[in-house]
Records
---
Amino acid sequence: MKEIKRDWRQFAFRTRAVRAGHERTPEGEHAEPIFTTSSFVFKDAAQAAARFADEEPGNVYSRFTNPTVRMFEQRLAALEEGERCVATSSGMSSILATCMALLKAGDHIVAASSLFGSTISLFNNVLTRFQLTTTFVPLTDLDAWRQAITPDTRMLFLETPANPLTEVADIAVLAELARTHNCLLVVDNVYCTPALQRPLSYGADIVVHSATKFLDGQGRCIGGAVIGNEAVGNALFGFLRTAGPSMSPFNAWVFAKGLETLDLRMHAHSRNAQQLAEWLTTQRGITHVYYPGLTSHPQHELATRQQKAHGGLLSFEVDGDRKEAWAFIDATELVSKTANLGDTKSTITHPSSTTHHRCGPEARAKAGIKESLIRISVGLEDIDDLKQDLQRGLNAIR
Ligand SMILES: Cc1ncc(COP(=O)(O)O)c(C=O)c1O
């Protein structure tokens, strides 16, 4: 695997987003090519041996060396300001690979209780079978993080803002705590993306991504990524090479092209979400709106300091229970009833019965996911059309 081009750091974010990672081939192509090939040809047996032994740089086999995947990795590393990025087949496999590559049986994780449902399931139901245990703590309770750390703790894991209740953690403070206890701080940066927040610059050790979300931005492909320093990159690369949760070259190409418009999109998503959140707070039938851009949000000041904008995801509770939440969702016509987020098209979800269904009632209660909760990933449609559509939902529950 080639070194990331550190000299991209001299360029501004938007320049890196459209330029970093692409090394033109002798064909002189302007747009990035897709290398859809499983393996690569050696000039002779000695070269094959040298490549397999890592004595000579170059491509071998697309499970661990593919130029299009490398282009995406270098571009995302440049945006997150990390030394290395390793792309994975999904967001979940980026989290799994991080744990498999950097932890061992007997290690302990402290994680925020407000995490994506499958991440909770992974920690609770899968990693436990390999003697990796997790203690869940409220994201914003620093004392709880401190108290949960044991001599076996090796990793702190969080999302900020968290999906779907948008709680915000102070990354710099938790990074300091992690350093004091010789732990790795891992931040799932799905909500903000590097356009709005760069956790490594606040002292986090590792950023994980579901590229499926805002990095793609148009809901086309499943993928993930892990970004960190050289040591993290080497460990992840070694795991990926052996275990194989690799990204396909086609998906890498889609994601790399998605990165080109990331900055523009994230600010446009944030503007729409802010307007929608403010409007929802004024509506009868809505009992609570969760959005870090609202001055009433408990970590509004921190979010405003730590992030460049407040992001495209919001949630709210309707007056009632599951019946009213479903009635609201079913009455909408424009927003898509789908569990994905981070798309140009707005999506509406009932977290309790979908994204957080499998983590069980206890974990849901701990995470504060009520039956009355609805999540919206605010897309790039006209704001008046979005309001008109949500008005249909409101009419159904009044
Ligand atoms: C915050 C967060 N992390 C991780 C994931 C998992 O990503 P993927 O679906 O690409 O495996 C998701 C998916 O919704 C998510 O919202």
---
Amino acid sequence: MRRTCDLLIVGSGPAGTAAAIAARRNAPNLHTLVIDRTTFPRDKTCGDGLGPGVVARLEQIGATDLLADSRPIDALRIVGPSGESVSGPLPTIGGSEPKGFVIPRQDFDAALQARAVTEGVELLPAHKLVTLDTSPAHTVITRAQTPHGHVSIQAKAVIAADGARSDIRRHLGIPYNSSKTTGLAIRTYIKASTHPFDHMEFHFRKDLLPAYGWVFPIERGHANVGIMIDAARYDPGNKTLRTMLNEFAMEIGVSEFDRANTGTYMLPYATSVPRLTHNRIALVGDAGSMINPFSGEGIAYGMAAGIEAAERAAHNLQQHTAASPFGDFDDWFHQRFGKHFRASAYAKRLAQRQWLANFGVRAARRRPSLLAEGIHLLVGEGTSLSWRSLITVLAQGNSHLRG
Ligand SMILES: Cc1cc2nc3c(=O)[nH]c(=O)nc-3n(C[C@H](O)[C@H](O)[C@H](O)COP(=O)(O)OP(=O)(O)OC[C@H]3O[C@@H](n4cnc5c(N)ncnc54)[C@H](O)[C@@H]3O)c2cc1C
């Protein structure tokens, strides 16, 4: 069977679906087709934390009503290796309210996908991209495997939003991130009546530094709990992710968790973003390694990139202007997020040292501006991690020790 479309989006996670909605809104006359290898609702191993950046992106595509039935969270708590903690408000992004949400991806991704279909996007579930032919001059030809055989799809532009193990990335010959720029994480769902569950919590535990364990509350008494570690530091012969998760759960006073719903997956950090634009193809989201190396957050950046790539393709395909439908998308991405990711990576390097992580928490307890900077690096778009901040951390942490 043969199909044609203007814009093909491969992958219907948040990056691909946000792109599809943006394309429809910007160019309703173009034929936008989304394929995904699975049928939704499907789970995606994740912390389920939707930071203020996701709220801002949903506003951009007119879909904030998808959050209406969920409990907003407006604060974040950071726990240092010594157990000392500090809490502060979530940041505002692009004028949106300083709120976050925790919604299981099984629900969030399905709701976003249903919205795309309502907006007129054509969706083909259970279609797995298996080959890619970039040799024709003005189109890309893909082949997708379906339960009923193969389908050939010819598109004028392709957005690759097919996740951390992107098949398109592999077909283009772009290596995946090395273990030095990849995170590994495990998550589960817990029930506990005693935990407060009112903040998004980041626990910078000694054995995980510079990464951390999280508690993201879904509703009173329920949370998504997990731990993240750099792949290069992971030695399963010494301690498995499951053991680390058990230890973390015990530390926060939780003994009951949903073992059937425990999952592990990888996080390609934005410390190694590949070239994103390949003539008529653009990589977005995890396929383009767009995960904050400090926090592991990736949904907001993936959605932002998906929306931008789709708007560019919508404009250029209608105007028949640029040779590449995505123009200088790479430059846009690096200008928009490069400084943020560099600052986040720097903060992470500092947090590698246990004493410095403890100093940071102590200093943030005394200086709200420093706390705001740290939170903005974790779940916002902060770019400032100045020498002044570092000196404040050293001075305040040290004075506390002497005091
Ligand atoms: C344990 C863990 C916790 C995390 N916690 C958070 C968090 O709390 N907040 C946050 O912002 N980020 C978090 N992240 C990162 C976040 O999960 C990703 O950044 C995000 O899912 C990226 O979205 P995406 O749309 O690029 O890819 P995905 O969500 O992975 O979607 C990719 C889609 O492509 C489809 N696909 C794959 N291959 C093909 C193919 N060949 N053909 C057709 N379809 C295909 C898949 O079925 C899938 O639906 C976490 C990651 C992990 C592993």
